[in-house]
Specification:
44% of the residues lie in helices and 14% in strands. By secondary structure, the protein is of the alpha/beta class. Strand 1, helix 2 and strand 2 form a beta-alpha-beta unit.
Length: 301
Amino acid sequence: MLETVWHVPVMLQEVIDYLRLEPGQTIVDATLGCGGHSLEILKRITPGGRLIGLDRDEDSLAICKERLSEFKESCEFVHANFSDLDQVLEKQGIDKIDGIVFDLGISTHQLKDAQRGFSFQEEGPLDMRLDKSSYISAYDLVNNLNENEISHMLWNFGQERWHNRIARYIIEERRNQPIATTAQLATLVMRAIPFKYRKSYYRIHPATRTFQAIRIAVNRELEILESVVKKAVAVLNEQARICVISFHSLEDRIIKHTFRALKAEGMVDIITPKPLTPTVSEIERNPPSRSSKLRVAQRIS
């Protein structure tokens, strides 16, 4: 059995309140993670309710099956990318749902497992695949893209100020040896950033944006987000809500513009004109929540 490392769900009470849960509803958790949101959802939609949980990570599904075992008659756990939401619901015989939540962050167990390669703080292989059956890993991108492609990736997906320098350092390092581990890449990024900027420019670890950019590229996280939100809204019952928690400005911008486009089409009302952010007390209890933003929309037609 996997070592249990419970991920603390972000803005849990806000999600529960905005979904307006009742017994008998059908709810989708499109990003199960460790099941923190799903656990509280199930407490409120049972008896009679049904939760469909999706995740690309089979380890997360295994954790959730254990953690939510008391609700096993009310749960369906599906190994799938949320881009396949419509197909998953069709296979389950579901036409419409009463709410859906997306938490776009990385789970604690994924960060803590060095072999997954997500964290610059854990020595491990340069992997970063959410779905272990995927073909392309971080190693493949870092060691095969050319300098311009790496630079564009770091800027487009990480908004990394020093994208050109980091890309150049990566190419130079590759001439000597493959970049194979998270520690090797993190050290290289530190070297690439001029010393005087390492603390003055970054409030976070200097490798954070680089790792974010590579993870997004490996898992194609942004390119599917707009279409997924539209798919989710399409299957909502009237007055049902979609809650999306994002963790960086690129994600939030896509959610904001997609909600606005759907509002212009007369499909939704935007419940949160400005995104909600965690309370001070939540950030103190759960520091990784500090960058999260929650946006909510409601189906109207």
